[in-house]
Design a protein that fits this description.
Helices cover 37% and strands 15% of the residues. It is α/β, with parallel strands linked by helices. The radius of gyration is 18 Å and the shape is globular. 42% of the residues are buried. It has one domain: 3-Layer(aba) Sandwich (Alkaline Phosphatase, subunit A).
Length: 299
């Protein structure tokens, strides 16, 4: 189903102390599950983007010196990432790179526990700043599957080159359906191994995992907190899986906007383990690390 033309409401036009971003979280899954973990007010919002790089560039267009961004996503870093053309350090007071130090090699992602630990540190170190906390879940990889599904990948550059060539010939919808059979992305590969129902169940388990930790963080931080997402996810709808940039279907752009309010907690202060900001351009090794981790995440 094509996405509606409902106007997007920028998250920066609302009042909040902390905003938790659940990467690739669909509205319908959140609506069905969240009540088991949280109490608050839920609205359906329309994201301006269907992938993280577009979301970053469309939403964060100004300088927000009152915000510290805690990120499990390697697209959000202290320097310019070439594939995104977005330098988070130029937009926020501080960027804390959980994707760098909280990465779990066995899972191939950043577990939400590491994100919570970093967010609490940041809240103590910067008590007068607002927080954006960007979890990597429910985005692929699916933690419940562990290493039970191991993909021998051709390079992501080659995969996406093939997909783009096919799309250019046949158009977005038909092209992506053909590409899913010839050069499947990670979500499509999982669907081949466990079926669409298995894919959807693995996605739901990721939603539950991140909601469990988001609820814990809400309880620890207090204050006015928003839980939302950068974009949604296709799980077999229209014969597609994943979240291709620019392909606007309802399941890709309908995201939760969940508000919960309470007294803001005084977390006190303590010697911070947060590293100092890295200055200058990314080194070759740092760029390679980012690209490696983005590749593992399916980018």
């Amino acid at each position: 189903m094509e996405a509606s033309n409902e106007a997007n409401i920028s998250p920066l036009n609302r009042s909040w102390d902390s905003m938790l971003i659940l990467d690739a979280c669909r509205y319908d899954y959140f609506e069905r599950i969240h009540g088991e973990y949280l109490r608050g007010n839920l609205e359906k919002h329309i994201s301006p983007a269907t992938c993280t790089p577009d979301y970053l560039n469309k939403v964060f267009t100004d300088v927000y010196d009152d915000i510290v961004y805690v990120s499990a996503n390697p697209f959000v870093t202290n320097r310019l990432v070439s594939r995104v053309h977005f330098d988070a350090s130029q937009h926020f007071h501080r960027v804390v790179e959980v994707w760098r130090d909280g990465w779990d090699e066995n899972l191939g992602t950043v577990p939400p526990k590491a994100v919570n630990e970093a967010a609490i540190e940041v809240a103590k170190k910067f008590p007068d700043k607002r927080l954006i906390v960007h979890y990597q879940q429910p985005h692929y990889p699916y933690v419940c599957l562990g290493n039970s599904i191991i993909r021998k990948k051709i390079s992501h550059r080659l995969t996406w080159f093939i997909r783009l060539r096919i799309v250019s010939l046949f158009g977005w919808k038909i092209g992506n359906q053909i590409a899913a059979r010839i050069a499947p992305n990670d979500e499509e590969f999982v669907a081949r191994k466990v079926g669409i129902d298995g894919l959807r169940n693995a996605y739901e388990q990721n939603v539950r995992l991140v909601l469990d930790y988001a609820a814990k963080l809400v309880g620890e931080l207090g204050g006015n907190i928003i839980i939302t997402s950068d974009h949604g996810e296709l799980l077999g709808e229209e014969g597609l899986c994943g979240h291709p940039c620019g392909l606007r279907y309802s399941k890709l752009v309908e995201v939760p906007w969940f508000e919960v309010s309470g007294p803001k907690k005084n977390l006190g202060a303590f010697p911070s383990k947060i590293e100092e900001i890295r200055d200058g351009a990314l080194s070759k090794e740092e760029e390679q690390l980012i690209q490696k981790r983005l590749s593992v995440l399916g980018y």
